[in-house]
Amino acid sequence: MINFVTTRSHAYTVRHLVRQLRDARSWSYERLFRQKELRSGTWVFTDHERLSNFEIALAARVANKLEQGGARVLNHPARVRSRYDLLKALKQAGINGFSAWRCENQPRPDTFPVFIRNEFDHLSTDFELIADQQALDATIGAMKANGIPLAGKLVIEYAGQEVSPGVWQRFATYRAGDRLIAHHNVVDFRWVAKDAQDGQRVLDHPMFATFVENERRFVVDNLYEGVLRQAFDLAGIDYGRADFSLVDGRPQIFEINTNPAHASHRTLYRETFPARVETQRLSEDRLYGALRAIAMPTGHRIVLDDPALLPQQVFRRLFLGLKRA
User: Fold this and answer.
1) Which residues pair with 39 in a beta bridge?
2) 14 vs 24: CA distance, rounded Å
3) How far is CA 99 from the centre of its chain?
4) How is residue 127 annotated by DSSP?
5) pTM, whole model, 2 decimals?
6) Are 157 and 99 in contact, with CB atoms under 8 Å apart?
7) 51-110 residue pLDDT tens
8) How many CB atoms lie within 10 A of CB 145?
9) Region for residue 190 given its phi and psi (left: phi exceeds 0; alpha: psi -120 to 50; beta: otherwise)
10) 111, burial (CB in 10 Å: exposed 0-12, middle 13-18, buried 19+)
11) What mean pLDDT is reported for the chain?
């Protein structure tokens, strides 16, 4: 049994995984914190960036009890780095050539352009590239003047490289336990590369066959596994998806998402190009195989006897608006 723990509003991301795996279920943190006992098995904690510090502390206490009771815990909340800390660590380790700064700390990036994004979500559209320090200072000043909080916002150096003039690419590699799975490689006509909205334009591109072959080789050969494993280890993440690009042939990792949205096989194959279907089927089969390998049978009961997890205390702190730790 694999138990995925998500925030309530983002349980949809694992819905298809639960259906496909069958021996799996999803939990919200709100429900988890109300339990007096849980069953052993495999527990996957996700959505760390969407939790308050108090909720992270509670989740870590639950994870501790689960581990002590013999359950398998992935993404222990006390060990997963924040997005900001991970980007700094990846830069320090020499994996990334770019870094990040917190908006409220008067950022002075080393290189430009840069962009600003939230630390607490995974939105990746409409980022505006900021050309220089003067423009960055003006942007931050305008945010203050317009009443936009700087807390929770990051300034990140741009790290992208066109795969063809006007075309960018994004790679995605999953981790499930000890296994890494190269999953997909998409191209887009925006520097914030997602699946291209203009599919016909991609299909008509003179390098379309090259794009398809690049993805096939990436998935079949599980390219960049070594550096991606190092990044996952730095992040403290046992289950999730790393999104990255290549700059001069080197992976540049934007983020590692512990709760990536996942579509069903049927939806995935319907929405992709026919030339990609076999590659996507291979990567999906590998991912589900890796997930089944980390599952543990549902076993004995584990009592959550940590005083901090007393339901009445948790309820008061979470739902009555009292000050959070």
Assistant:
1) 301
2) 10
3) 18
4) P
5) 0.92
6) yes
7) 999 999 999 999 999 999 999 999 999 999 999 999 999 999 999 999 999 999 999 999
8) 8
9) beta
10) exposed
11) 91
Measured CA to CA, the distance from residue 322 to residue 308 in angstroms comes to: 15
Distance, in Å, from the CA atom of 73 to the CA atom of 75, rounded to the nearest integer, reads 7
Residue 178 in tokens:
């000890």
Q: How far is CA 239 from the centre of its chain?
A: 9
Q: How many residues does the chain have?
A: 325
For tokens 């190092």, what's the residue? 230
- Helix residue spans in 123-207 (DSSP H): 133-145, 199-204
Q: Which CATH architecture has domain 168-294?
A: 2-Layer Sandwich (3.30)
User: Which is nearest to 192 in space by CA: 248, 269, 275, 255?
Assistant: 255
C-beta separation of 252 from 98 below 8 A: yes
Q: Number of H helices and number of E strands within the chain?
A: 11, 13
Contact (CB, 8 A) for 140 and 149: no
Q: Which two tokens stand for residue 47?
A: 């959505």
Structure token digits, residue 176: 């499930």
CB 259 within 8 A of CB 47: yes
Give the separation between CA 273 and CA 280, rounded to whole angstroms.
10
Long-range contact pairs involving 23-32 (C-beta distance under 8 Å, separation at least 24): 23/292, 23/295, 24/291, 24/295, 25/1, 27/3, 29/5, 29/55, 29/58, 29/59, 30/318, 32/5, 32/59, 32/62
Confidence of residue 157 (pLDDT cuts 50, 70, 90): very high
For 99-157, CATH gives: 3.30.1490
Chain segment 31-54, per-residue pLDDT in tens: 999 899 999 999 999 999 999 999
Sketch the domain layout of the chain as residue ranges: 2-80+295-319, 99-157, 168-294
> Tell me, what DSSP letter sits at residue 167?
B
Judge whether residue 323 has pLDDT over 50.
no
Position of tokens 């596994």?
Answer: 225
Q: Whole-angstrom Cα distance, residue 88 to residue 228?
A: 16
192: Cβ contacts below 8 Å, ≥ 6 apart = 124, 125, 127, 168
